[in-house]
Specification:
mainly alpha
Length: 614
């Protein structure tokens, strides 16, 4: 039976119970600091104190309480160090908390000493000359960092405790959505003078961002302030990579290792073959993401060359992250309509979407092969004899073949189905560019270069099929995944060839994976049909059946393309889309496994008996 998330290894302390109490106190102080910062930034500061003015009593109280939470480890860490039986590794295992506390403490001392140099620094980082503004900015910045680290630590405790990987995965996304909803409800997330977002608007946007979908009930470019857009950007990045990936990466950077149970959890979630692959894969996930998003932001920055430099950088980074994470959030109300011939769109954004949908597993596999070949040619003495021959995995081969087939085939079919619809002023090159980008974005991205409400019924049906298949496993996209689609096709081929097993690329696919793949298809169809049924009943608009089907598929596959009906849907219909986006992001099978819990091993088998299948 797995241990609870709050059970710790007491063998490393001379006073186990007191040590455990101090650990929980440190963790709770981080959460309290986060709540205090959000309260001040979202409510008290906006109502009572503007930048540059003197701080009110409420501000000073919140500042004092936040500082007390941050200062707590200054007392508890030395005590725990003194009690520790493993002092040689204590600082390394608590490096993140020690670093945050030390930097904040030194900065707080510096800000409390009025000097000309500190006034200049205060103006640069806090943007104001107001008394105490530098101190409150510094304290709240590190309060935010402490709060985030506490949330990540909670998830890591859960994985280390041996809880079900599926349950931890589902819980991490629920926590992220809940946190994002609260953040978006803060007054600062709306433009000045406008009321805060309603709970449904905030919940829908937070779910869409965390599940990297892109469906919206409000226009992200005008409804949310720059603060709100930054919150959405953070939710997209965290949702695309997963909160657990961030937590594991921080553990690898700070302590250079992750617990065996935590590694096992990631191995199950990432479906890695070897436990030793997990650390390398996590590092590659972060490295690939940051590198691709940075290069992508530079590549597409020309779309906003007419804006001031600061705005151009923000728009470039926002849309690069949104594209690579397959989120589809766009800060333009019209999307990318009219820009289909820009190379930044059909080339830059399209390539970001494709790379994000390939999956980190295949990219990691190709990186390992490239590194091995480089060492083999230039530094053969560094190759370990135990490594053996590196090969392209079956998953990588299937992913690339199916991806290329869907991209090219989808573009051709969509071009042909739209030929019969006259579009005023569009050249043949614009139609080709639109068909290509539409085929790419249906891989769960959500950007648009044309009005989806004007698509022909045939185009909408083809789009629904492409959305249902979606991206690849281990990627930022959704859908049933390319490998699952391939398994279904291979199963059909084996049935037609009267084979009792499934073969692909000189390999036999295990029976349990076949069953899992077919289960994913069945549960996914059930989720989409269920959501469509709710929309049809609640909205009671028979003429919009295809649009409702289109919207439900877009939500489940976390695509985000829309025929424009989402903002006008009734609250119950929007809640149905929220639930469908969540199920689509975590996976229908994962949700069922998380709710069902661990199944006992069956040690018996009944006799076989054939049934009629028609």
């Amino acid at each position: 039976m797995p241990s609870l998330p709050f059970q710790f290894d007491d063998s490393t302390s001379l006073h186990p119970r007191l040590n455990r109490a101090l650990i929980l106190l440190e963790w709770l102080s981080g959460l309290v600091a986060l709540v205090l910062v959000l309260s001040d930034q979202g409510f008290v500061r906006q109502k009572e104190s503007l930048p540059g003015q003197e701080l009110t009593n409420s501000n000073w109280w919140l500042l004092g309480l936040t500082a007390a939470c941050l200062a707590l480890p200054v007392v508890t860490l030395p005590v725990r160090y003194w009690w520790s039986r493993t002092r040689s590794t204590f600082l390394r295992s608590h490096a993140l908390l020690v670093t945050i506390t030390l930097i904040w403490f030194l900065g707080a001392i510096a800000f409390s000493i009025p000097t000309a140099t500190m006034e200049v620094i205060q103006e640069e980082i806090a943007g104001t000359h107001g008394p105490g503004q530098g101190m409150i900015f510094w304290t709240e910045l590190f309060g935010l960092l402490r709060g985030i680290s506490s949330l990540i630590r909670l998830i890591r405790w859960s994985t280390e405790a041996g809880l079900s990987p599926a349950l931890v995965f589902v819980a991490s996304f629920l926590l992220l959505i809940f946190s994002g909803t609260l953040l978006l409800m803060l007054p600062r997330c709306r433009p000045e003078g406008l009321p805060p977002a309603t709970w449904l608007e905030a919940l829908f946007t937070a779910t869409s961002a965390c599940c990297v979908t892109g469906l919206n009930v409000v226009d992200p470019g005008t409804y949310w302030s720059r603060t709100g857009q930054c919150v959405i950007l953070g939710l997209i990045q965290a949702g695309g990579l997963g909160v657990m990936s961030f937590g594991a990466f921080i553990a690898l950077v700070v302590t250079r290792n992750i617990a065996a149970r935590e590694a096992a959890t990631f191995r199950d979630l990432l479906e890695s073959d070897r436990l030793g692959d997990v650390s390398g894969l996590i590092k590659d996930i972060i490295a690939f993401t940051l590198a691709i998003e940075l290069v992508g932001a530079v590549a597409i920055s020309g779309l906003w060359s007419h804006l001031p430099l600061g705005e151009q950088i923000f728009y470039s980074v926002f849309h690069s992250v949104s594209a690579f994470c397959n989120a589809g959030f766009c800060l333009h109300a019209e999307g990318l309509i009219g820009r289909e011939l820009r190379p930044e769109v059909w080339g830059g954004i399209a390539l970001l979407i494709i790379l994000g949908g390939i999956g980190f597993g295949p990219l990691h596999n190709l990186r390992e092969i490239a590194s091995h070949q480089f060492l083999k040619i230039f530094m053969p003495q560094k190759i370990s004899p135990s490594i053996g021959r590196m090969r392209v995995s079956l998953t990588t081969r299937i992913v690339f073949r199916v991806t290329i087939a869907l991209l090219v085939g989808g573009a051709v079919v969509l071009f042909l189905t739209e030929l019969g619809r006259p579009v005023a002023g569009q050249t043949i090159w614009q139609q080709i560019a639109n068909a290509w980008f539409h085929s790419v974005t249906l891989r769960t991205a959500g950007f648009n270069t044309m009005d989806h409400s004007q698509l022909t019924p045939a185009s909408k049906l083809i789009s629904i099929v492409l959305m249902f298949i979606g991206a690849s496993p281990g990627s930022t996209g959704g859908g049933i995944k390319t490998t699952c689609f391939a398994v279904a096709i291979l199963t059909l081929r084996s049935v037609l060839q009267q084979k009792s097993h499934i073969e692909a690329g000189g390999r036999t696919i295990p029976q349990e994976q076949i069953l899992r793949g077919l289960s994913i298809v069945a549960l996914s169809l059930t989720a989409i049909i269920g959501c469509t049924l709710i929309l049809v009943i609640v909205e009671n608009k028979p003429t919009l059946f295809l649009d409702h089907f289109y919207e439900a598929t877009s939500a489940f596959a976390t695509v985000g393309v829309s025929t424009g009906i989402t903002p006008s849907l009734k609250p119950l219909s929007q809640l149905a889309l929220i639930a469908t986006m969540f199920i689509g992001r975590i996976g229908a099978v994962t949700l069922v496994v998380a709710l069902a819990g661990s199944a006992s091993q069956v040690v018996y088998r009944y006799p076989d008996e054939r049934i009629s299948l028609g």
